[in-house]
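Appendix C reproduces, verbatim, an entry submitted by the partner laboratory led by Prof. M.T., so that reviewers can inspect both the input and the predicted structure.
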Amino acid sequence: MRIYIPDMELVETLKFSKDIFNRIPNEDEIILDFSQMSNFDPLPMLIMGTTIRNYRNQFPDKKFKIEGTNGKSYAGTMGFFKYISESLGIGMMPGEARGSENYIPITPIKIDELQQTEIAKGNRMVVGDLIEKEAGRLARIVDRGNPELHKLLTYLIREILRNTPEHAETETMWICGQYWPSFELAEIAIADEGIGIYNSITQNHSHKEYISDNKEALQWALKAGISEAFRPSEKQRDHDEWANSGFGLYMVNSICKYLKGSFCIISYGDYMLIDNHGIKYGETNFKGTAIRIRVPSKKISNAHDIISNIAIQGQSEAKTIRNAFKSASKPSKGLMSDLKIY
């Protein structure tokens, strides 16, 4: 059986990731043909790689063969093929390429490994500081030397990454990024294969009463102050600057919207794409959570003011929402000088 991998445009990739599991092989060999694939955008690579890996695992008794990879050296450099399986002798391992001013290759981020690296250097850092440092390193790869873009990308990457260990119940995240000079556009994609937003947020019974499925979970996750960590009987604790306040995804989405960029969130069966055309919902079969942000760099003049103003707006909105934290945490307010993001 031959399966043609489509061009890696986002919506088409999400559709493929659902449809492929309806292909039940009757033959002993399955050929994955990449000859029709030309674009290699960050989020579609993460989704497609995970999908193919899971599909292969579903049929362990079948022989899988890869064809049509000639002319796909960029995907190989990004670590795409070995993200599917390290046994594929095509391209580099995820994280092996150093990246350039135009791309961040598919890179694993493991909190425990980051901690061990810093300990070896004699540094002992809390997880929040550790993630912030890694976010700054990744942002610098594609910030084009623009300090305001660097601040904003560091903030956005950090806000997505720091929620994953707490809510996804997994220690491994994957990141991939691209900068398109001709469009002055930066894209960052981050994915994990954890428990998903619905399973995370509904662990809190305060939210479970009005969130009944994945689609509703995505909608509520983008509201200010909504977090699994919220407890009606407890006051918000201000002494822990890294304490979750439920503003992370609200801030990331709102910043993308303010800059007329785009935001996409995917989690266990559903996706939500927000851009200048409105909101699009759809179904997919990605097992985990993935987020894509696209930010036009030419619209960024003062990252601190953008983040601060949106945080103030979010706190105002949170006051109207039941079972929500009313105040953003210190990091979510974007106090760049205090957080040492330069």
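DSSP finds 14 helices and ten strands in the chain. Additional entries are available on request from the coordinating office.
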